[in-house]
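S.,

Sequence below, as promised.
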Amino acid sequence: MNTSNSKESQTQLPQGIRWNADGLIPVVVQDVDTREVLMLAYMNEEALRRTLQEGRAWYYSRSRQSLWLKGETSGHTQEVVDLRFDCDRDTILLTVRQKGVACHEEFYSCFHYGVQGEGYVTLGAPEEVPAIPLGRTMELLAEVIHSRNMERPEGAYTTYLFDKGLDKILKKVGEECAETIIAAKNSSAEEIRYEVSDLIYHVLVLLEERGVSLEAISQELLSRRK
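The prediction came back faster than expected:
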């Protein structure tokens, strides 16, 4: 019995997918952390089925006329985090956790050519991984803080703060505010970076303790953008 064929037969694809004339669908691939668009590829039915089954990105090569597993030879694999269709169901947005670089030219993203006059200019450098935006960094940190609040692992500093309660958290926020002011007065960029990071962390703990989401803060800040 062929196990792989059995598994494939068990994986039903969504109805109403609008494949192109060649039986393919374009796939826009996005990094889950940096939100950067990494590449544009294509899937046929089998590639989509394997992607859904395995949680790894499979594509169809139009030049080689064959399936290929991203990173199979290079090691630059893509772990699937989310897969969704656009409103016409003729394009896929694939959110992945990229290992290594996405581009065969050794750039993190395939979209590394900017337009300059009638020519192109290379953006970034080979193997340069873009920094995660501050907003996304705060989301990731807030997720960790929330899990600490729910699970209360022994020995974790965040657990200690939640166990001590609101007054302790407020005291730490006040201390970090004062230390940030001192760092700014000292005109040390390194010290400012360190103290502001401490302040942001403790503010995130405070938000978690009070049940205020980052989305609510984001909406409030956007309302002031005038």
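Residues 95 and 107 are 18 Å apart (CA to CA).

Coffee later?
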